Amino acid sequence: MSEEAAGIPTLADARKVLASQPFSVLIGARLVEYESGRAVLEIPLRPELLQQFGFAHGGVLAYAADNALTFAAGTALGSSIVTTGMTLDYLRPASGALLRAVAAVVSAGRRQALCRCKIYAVTDDATEKLCAAAQGSARVIDSNR
Amino acid sequence: MSEEAAGIPTLADARKVLASQPFSVLIGARLVEYESGRAVLEIPLRPELLQQFGFAHGGVLAYAADNALTFAAGTALGSSIVTTGMTLDYLRPASGALLRAVAAVVSAGRRQALCRCKIYAVTDDATEKLCAAAQGSARVIDSNR
Amino acid sequence: MSEEAAGIPTLADARKVLASQPFSVLIGARLVEYESGRAVLEIPLRPELLQQFGFAHGGVLAYAADNALTFAAGTALGSSIVTTGMTLDYLRPASGALLRAVAAVVSAGRRQALCRCKIYAVTDDATEKLCAAAQGSARVIDSNR
Amino acid sequence: MSEEAAGIPTLADARKVLASQPFSVLIGARLVEYESGRAVLEIPLRPELLQQFGFAHGGVLAYAADNALTFAAGTALGSSIVTTGMTLDYLRPASGALLRAVAAVVSAGRRQALCRCKIYAVTDDATEKLCAAAQGSARVIDSNR
Fold first, then answer.
1. Distance from CA of A111 to the nearest CA of D (A)
2. What's the pLDDT tens digit per position in C88-109?
3. What one-character DSSP code corresponds to residue C118?
4. Could you read off the pLDDT of A52-102 as tens digits, one per residue?
């Protein structure tokens, strides 16, 4: 592997990672920002992603939090990482044109990073409403664990 | 509404709720147990639910935790509830024939319940391996909030 | 109770609340900021607050997170509130002259608020090092629960 | 260090660790059980540990959760560990003669362990009431992080 490959992925690299996750393709997630300490994931809302009351299913928000946190951590740690855990607080029902999950690194060492994420429901006229907030960690995959 | 409808749903009722969640249908989740204080959700693993390394995507486990916790809470609170939040710790990569999320009520009042969940990866020969553990809350939807 | 008393406490009011918590007096916590959406708590580190390796005990950081989150929520909800839960991630051992817990409201409704907190270890020369990060909720005490 | 010292501490060893934590001495915590996968910590309630309404301060419950989780993890990992994080859900106000924090290992590898804890308020006539529930992780201190 070249030194470049071992470094921090670019947005193009990170989009390839997202495209190589079949579940992210099923969800229809797209990575719209990916830079030092920050990642933004968007999920257009379509009927298949809803729950019985017509709002985005909590599991879709949980997917968004999990993956946005992990991509944000990846900007600090590279892409050979696993998410170790997260906390997600739901604030209000999410509906609209899309979900936007904005994640940022709070603290990163060489092997671990703590990130936070806010999930917004965005309407057709681009109004954002905060729907959930998460905090979670990722660490470099450790061959000798 | 009849008194029966206002009470705790039966397994058949709960399965109708699950079937009315388009995202749960997309995931392919099925409810295999639903009784006082306990709910078990299973998700057959298929390629669409995986991440780039061939394991179940963390977002699928997060969906499983979210929904199993909520159904367990529903056995105590009825079905007009929302999940308020959860914490999910990932323990090891999940692969096999299916995911089994076993959730139980830890404490329930009239309006709120705290639940815990363990998520197992189950192989074709029915071996279970613990892959994640969650703790989360739900509360009755409050018309005057 | 006057209408004023039912509103959002001032810094002086909030300091009276802190002084009326015997455990906060035992810890030696002081409230240094208290304004709309934000509260800052400081705890001078003394030998009684340490663990066996000479760092601040995790329980002291947990106290700081719990109380700073609750005071921040109080700026939005008033002082008749209870903390419903929190998540705390420890980032590095804390030592120095004092702990500073900076908490802010992420989202507040009429009856609930979600807050986040960062805990810094502050040295004698005022250098801050981030040691822990928390997310937690509080809600108004509900007489008819 | 002898091989014995590197192994899993006995109850007597673990009590020495607790006694070497000045903050645990200030709190007045005692370790009443310590065996494979399980630790029980008790804290006699005295006026200094309360909040303004006469209940145990949330920070005391948070200390109890943090330390009970860590001691339970120690039964699997040995005593050179740090707590990496925890989630704590408060269920009801705690009052009575003492707090009892019962923690158990959910999953342990060679270097990490996930534990859960329930905190009970115990009255003079030995009635237990569940007041809080926690989930948290610890890992072996890693010299090359």
1. 7
2. 999 999 999 999 999 999 999 9
3. E
4. 999 999 999 999 999 999 999 999 999 899 999 999 999 999 999 999 999
Q: How does pLDDT run across D73-108, given as a tens digit for each residue?
A: 999 999 899 999 999 999 999 999 999 999 999 999
Half-sphere CA count of B130, side-chain side, radius 13 A: 16
Q: Considering only residues 22 to 81 of chain B, which have any Cβ-Cβ distance to chain A shorter than 8 Å?
A: 22-27, 47-52, 57-60, 62-67, 70
Nearest CA-CA partner of A72 in A113, A107, A37 = A37
Q: Give CA–CA dist B131/B133, Å, rounded.
A: 7
For residue C106, how many C-alpha atoms fall within 13 Å in the half-sphere facing its CB?
A: 28
**Per residue in D91-122, is it b (16+ CB within 10 Å) or e — as a string?**
bebbbbebbbbbbbbbbbeeebbbbbbbbbbb
The predicted pLDDT at position C30 comes to: 98
Mutate to test the interface with B, among A13, A16, A17, A23 (most CBs of B within 10 A): A23
> What is the mean pLDDT of the segment spanning C136-145?
80
Q: Using only the alpha carbons of chain B, give its radius of gyration.
A: 15
Give the DSSP H or E segment for A145.
none
In a 10 Å sphere around its CB, with 0-12 CB exposed, 13-18 middle and 19+ buried, how is residue B6 labelled? exposed
Interface contact B109, partner C, CB < 8 A? yes
| CA nearest to A135 within chain C | C135
pTM of the model: 0.94
Residue D44 in tokens:
């006699």
Q: Is A104 on the interface with C (CB under 8 A)?
A: no
Give the CA distances from residue B82 to residues A15, A47, A135, A136, B79, in Å, rounded to whole numbers and listed in that order.
33, 19, 20, 22, 9
Percent of chain C with pLDDT over 70: 93
- Pair C92, C133: CB distance under 8 Å: no
Q: Which long-range contacts (CB under 8 A, 24 or more apart) does D4-13 make?
A: D6/D78, D7/D78, D8/D36, D8/D74, D8/D75, D8/D76, D8/D78, D9/D34, D9/D74, D9/D75, D9/D78, D9/D79, D10/D34, D11/D35, D13/D79
* Residue A143 φ/ψ, nearest 5 degrees: -65, -30
**Six token digits for residue D78:** 């040995």
Of residues B4 and C85, more confidently modeled: C85
Q: Identify the CA nearest to C90 among candidates C53, C48, C58.
A: C58
* Residues with Cβ within 8 Å of residue D121, at least 6 apart in sequence: D45, D56, D94, D95, D96, D98, D99, D128, D129, D131
Q: Say how many C-beta atoms besides its own lie within 10 A of residue B142's C-beta.
A: 11
Per-residue confidence (pLDDT) for residue B143, from 0 to 100: 57
ipTM above 0.85, yes or no: yes
Alpha helices in A20-57 (DSSP H): 22-27
d(CA A86, CA C133): 13
